[in-house]
Amino acid sequence: MRPLDDVRVLSFGTGGVVPDACKILGELGADVIKIESKDNLDFMRTIGPDINNIAGFNEANRSKRSFGVNLKSERGREIIRRLLKKADILAENFRGGVMQSLGFDYRSVRKLNKSIIYISSQGFGGGGPYSDFQAYGPMLSSASGMLSIWSQPDDPYPVGSNSPLPDHMASKHVVIAVLAALDYRRRTGKGQFIDMAQTEVAVNLIGEHYLDYTYNGRVARPSGNRSTHAAPHGCYPCHGPDEWCAITVHTDQEWEDFREALGDPAWARDSKFIDILSRLKNVDELDEHVKQWTVQRNAHEIMETMQKAGIAAGVVQRAPDCIADPQLTWQGAVIELDHPVAGKRLYPNVPFKLSAYPSLWSTRAPLLGEHTDEICRDILGMTDKEIAGLLAAEILHNPSNTSGTGKSMFG
After folding, report:
1. Dist. CA 99–CA 101, nearest whole Å
2. Cα separation of 271 and 278, whole Å?
3. For the domain bounded by 8-204+331-402, which CATH number is listed?
């Protein structure tokens, strides 16, 4: 048994937010059915060499089943309506208006299933002047204000990151909202509609800067790795090509411990560095001294020296380092899954352990329409003859009629 073993989710998710959220629900035991069509692919299936062999898609769409259906047809929509009557949760993050055009907006779905929990997550939420705007992770970073501070002070423009941080954070908020709604339904018997704007999630990530402006009138500027309340604080170069170690010293007591870990050099006793305010005032000079010490030493040596002294420090690792990291290995943080098209690949494991549910696991991402037949049989009670007819009419999709579907970014 897993916490959500009796919960069924219909996921109309595309891209990152809802697919990643539903992956987590699947890892918690929910039967997550991804509704997709070969005629309107989840765009994540298109950014690689093959619709079934794309790293980003296969990561975000683990632990779910794929149901292929032509939503442009009335017969296909009728099949979805039958599934909705047997579902607990509907999750979608299509552009505003899409679900309504299909007849699957909350009001319509609630007529079929009064206890449904319906979560809708658009970039700018439902309603308001931007509700129908197209939105992606980097755009959310920009709209929230995050991008304006995501760089070094001397960079000529906001740098940001290739990692769509708002998407990944928003997916976790989706899970929290769903779990809260499930608890509410358990106590009251009532479902509900959840509207979550991904931009609001991004805003939450930098809330202290909004507070600083409203209270102090200060507009946040890029500060790179610097901190307003800790020094030294940054990533320092170490011995070897492109090797770095992050070090943070907050309190004056930590400074004393840090100084001793360095061997109590004369410069560290200068009055310029006697307390946190002095260190912040002279941070450029301080960082140069720290750099001169770190550049002569191995990054792991520095990390271990600092940690023994009670100072927060960690090697700046890359993917190969993380895969081989002894702590992550001990935790089982990386698992191998065998995909029929992509082959054996490494993926992040479920990142927590529950003592009451020690057997949480993740399964590989599905092929497009891989579970259409079994869902039709097991949930909708269709006969093999009926399923075959719907496949032949291209109302339903499974691997037999989706092979070679769609164009990837490579043609």
Report:
1. 5
2. 8
3. 3.40.50.10540
- Measured CA to CA, the distance from residue 11 to residue 246 in angstroms comes to 40
Distances in whole angstroms, Cα of residue 348 to Cα of each of 60, 255, 368: 10, 36, 22
For residue range 191-235, list pLDDT tens digits in order. 999 999 999 998 988 899 999 999 999 999 999 999 999 999 999
d(CA 62, CA 362): 7
Cα–Cα distance, 375 to 68 (Å, whole number): 10
User: Tell me, what DSSP letter sits at residue 357?
Assistant: B
Backbone angles phi, psi at 183, to 5 degrees: -65, -40
Helix (H) or strand (E) holding 12: strand 8-12
CB 66 within 8 A of CB 26: no
Mean pLDDT confidence for 75-90: 98
Q: How far apart are CA 366 and CA 65, in angstroms?
A: 6
pLDDT at res. 305: 98
Tokens, residue 376: 């039709």
User: Quick count: other Cβ atoms within 10 Å of Cβ 407?
Assistant: 9
Is the Cβ–Cβ distance between 380 and 79 less than 8 Å?
yes
Question: Between residues 88 and 352, which one has the greater pLDDT?
Answer: 88
Q: Which residue in 206, 42, 199 sits closest to 130, CA to CA? A: 199
Measured distance CA(195)–CA(122) in Å, rounded: 8
Q: How do residues 86-114 score in pLDDT, each as one tens digit?
A: 999 999 999 888 999 999 999 999 999 99
Cα separation, 202 vs 146, in Å, equals: 7
DSSP E strand stretches across 13-162: 31-36, 65-69, 89-92, 117-120
Phi, psi at residue 234, to the nearest 5°? Answer: 170, -175
* Lowest mean pLDDT across 104-113, 142-151, 251-260, 287-296: 142-151
Structure token digits, residue 98: 């899409």
Range(s) within the chain of domains with CATH label 3.30.1540.10? 233-323
CATH fold for domain 233-323 = formyl-coa transferase, domain 3 (3.30.1540)
Query: Structure pTM?
Result: 0.92
User: Where does the chain hold its CATH 3.40.50.10540 domain(s)?
Assistant: 8-204+331-402
Chain centre to alpha carbon of residue 151: 21
